[in-house]
């Protein structure tokens, strides 16, 4: 999806075929593992390990023949055998199968699985789909088999066989992939980018039977027809360049029909809906904002061109920096115009703070013709607008003001969030990147601009996939571009180590680059210090040397009597007590810890109730949490994905956040000596919080039973005490308050 904003695929690809012959032979190289090679995996196969490294070996207890391939995993892991790539066409249907034998694999813990992995030829735009899973209760060999449908914008398929979040032994044999059609084709547009600069569109024919028949390739771009004839050469893939002339912009339909040479009826039809990009697009500059304290600015950026050759020939590309009066303060130009990315760099010298704009202009050859333009806002700001520190109480300080962070993972409408009192936005889709693919920087800029406009701050994901694949130049570019955006509260990383996607050296490298490129924002690590199954000591949960703040998940609802421990699912539950998470209460660190609290419905369960939402929030705060992030909004099972937000109790969540926001001054204030309780073993979380204006006592019943409680502290003065968010007061004696708590009930007292 290169240049994703302009060239995004907007409709699903449709592929229909008329059979030429029987389905193809097995497309897997050495699928029977009889060529054992010289190592611990068969020839034509490779290891993929995402987590704890298992042992790979050749075994001679085969399903058929002499050899099978085995994986022995004493610890939970994700580890697979991966086949050699198979050329495929988007939309085509295949069938994958394998024989597997399992031993010592626990039922209900992950899966022994066969997976289809798709990507472009360079490995980018990767995705996976389940083909089938083994029944781990069965003895002996069993077959896994399932359909495979190729998604859009990919060129190859690999089959993975192995463990997904489980352990034991699995042995594999007779792995096969068969296509329903022996000859298919794909339009080979890199990133589905169709530019008027192109004078031919490549079509790749995949020939699985070695046929040498003549074919007619017909393309149509909306109503404009193009065609080419070709004789198949018998090779597995063959690329044919079909001459075209592209004379339109915007949405278009590109259709491919493949015919036998003398047959008017196509045996393959393919249709792609795409957008032909504008002639000139100015991407966000790097950085989007300049801090005046950093000295004379330097602006780097890209202009994306999509011009016909007759237009670009002899033309001039000019990039101007304009002040608010439209005076040119600096300029850059070139006559070497390329299709796609054209990079520029401007050093305008010292400039005052204020709003500027960057203008890209294509001036046709000879000065004639109408210039083409694209503009982008740019700012010089004081460093205070783009600097966040952490105070002694463990809270972020932005523009000189402490912030109590409250947000939603994959947030909804920023205006609605801000109105309710949320202080932090978060977005997966707007910040996500794909390995090997140019990121959609404009989408991220729009998200950050929107956050700033409503007065919120962003917990901003680092480009995780760039880090996971070692694409450090691309990683550094993304951080450098947005390092001074006033909306950023902190950079964020999630579960790279816990899931086994990263090694510790990856997190160390991320931390290093953040310090070099953006020392003015803290780094939040929502991650364990190792693969999650290895982290038994919750008091030593985080990689403390690599973070400024830590966060993990507390998603125990609905509570159940049986013990459940699944750290990736945020569960540390025994019985019906809403026990605060050990990563918070037992942490051996003074670094701030945020708590991910629950706002999603686990499979076949329910959303938290309003009482549970309120209890979770106050328990986390009373136990020392320095921020709350609800999981989640637009996520699987999240409260914004509910058919009706009322079912997810979104109105009550907003009401709760409004209440919490009204208490922000005490949450970010000093924590007084913890009061004592009678009965002393009552399952109640309690905290005294003081701001310059007031003293507040928080008490939250974690248990499923009501309790009458006496809270004792020298800070409690005799007299009437207001109970916040309740239409009542209680009488306090000297040093004591006695009150009743319903199951999971919370009382917040404003003390005199």
Features:
eight-stranded parallel beta sheet; 47 strands; mainly beta; nine-stranded antiparallel beta sheet; globular; Immunoglobulin-like; 752 residues; Jelly Rolls
What does the secondary structure layout of this molecule look like, with pairings?
Elements: H1 4-7, E1 14-17, E2 45-51, E3 55-59, E4 68-83, E5 86-87, E6 93-103, E7 111-119, E8 127-133, E9 142-149, E10 156-179, E11 183-187, E12 200-207, E13 214-221, E14 224-231, E15 237-243, E16 250-260, E17 268-276, E18 280-282, E19 289-291, E20 299-305, H2 309-312, E21 316-322, E22 328-334, E23 340-346, E24 354-363, E25 372-381, E26 388-390, E27 396-398, E28 401-403, E29 406-408, H3 414-420, E30 424-425, H4 441-453, E31 457-461, H5 464-468, H6 472-482, E32 488-494, H7 504-517, E33 523-526, E34 549-554, E35 564-566, E36 571-573, H8 582-585, E37 593-598, H9 610-622, E38 628-631, H10 650-662, H11 664-667, E39 670-671, E40 676-678, E41 684-690, E42 695-701, E43 707-712, E44 719-723, E45 728-732, E46 736-741, E47 746-751
Parallel strand pairs: 19-25, 29-38, 30-31, 31-32, 32-33, 33-34, 34-37, 37-38
Antiparallel strand pairs: 1-17, 2-4, 3-4, 4-10, 5-10, 6-9, 6-10, 7-8, 7-10, 11-12, 12-15, 13-14, 13-16, 16-17, 18-20, 20-23, 21-22, 21-24, 24-25, 26-27, 27-28, 35-36, 39-41, 40-43, 41-42, 42-47, 43-46, 44-45, 44-47
Provide a short characterization of the protein structure.
It contains eleven helices and 47 strands.
What does this structure look like?
The protein has 752 residues and is mainly beta. It folds into 5 domains: 45-179, Jelly Rolls (Sandwich); 186-276, Acyl-CoA thioester hydrolase/BAAT N-terminal domain (Immunoglobulin-like, Sandwich), CATH 2.60.40.2240; 283-381, Sandwich (Immunoglobulin-like), CATH 2.60.40; 384-667, Glycosidases (TIM Barrel), CATH 3.20.20; 670-751, Sandwich (Immunoglobulin-like), CATH 2.60.40.1180. Helix content is 12%, strand content 40%. The protein is built from 11 helices and 47 strands. The strands form 10 sheets. Strands 2, 3, 4, 5, 6, 7, 8, 9 and 10 form a 9-stranded antiparallel sheet that branches. An 8-stranded parallel sheet has the order 29-38-37-34-33-32-31-30, covered by helices on one side. The protein has a 6-stranded antiparallel sheet with strand order 39-41-42-47-44-45. A hairpin with a 7-residue loop joins strand 16 (250-260) and strand 17. The protein is globular and about 100 Å long. The termini are far apart. Residues 1-22 have low confidence and may be disordered.
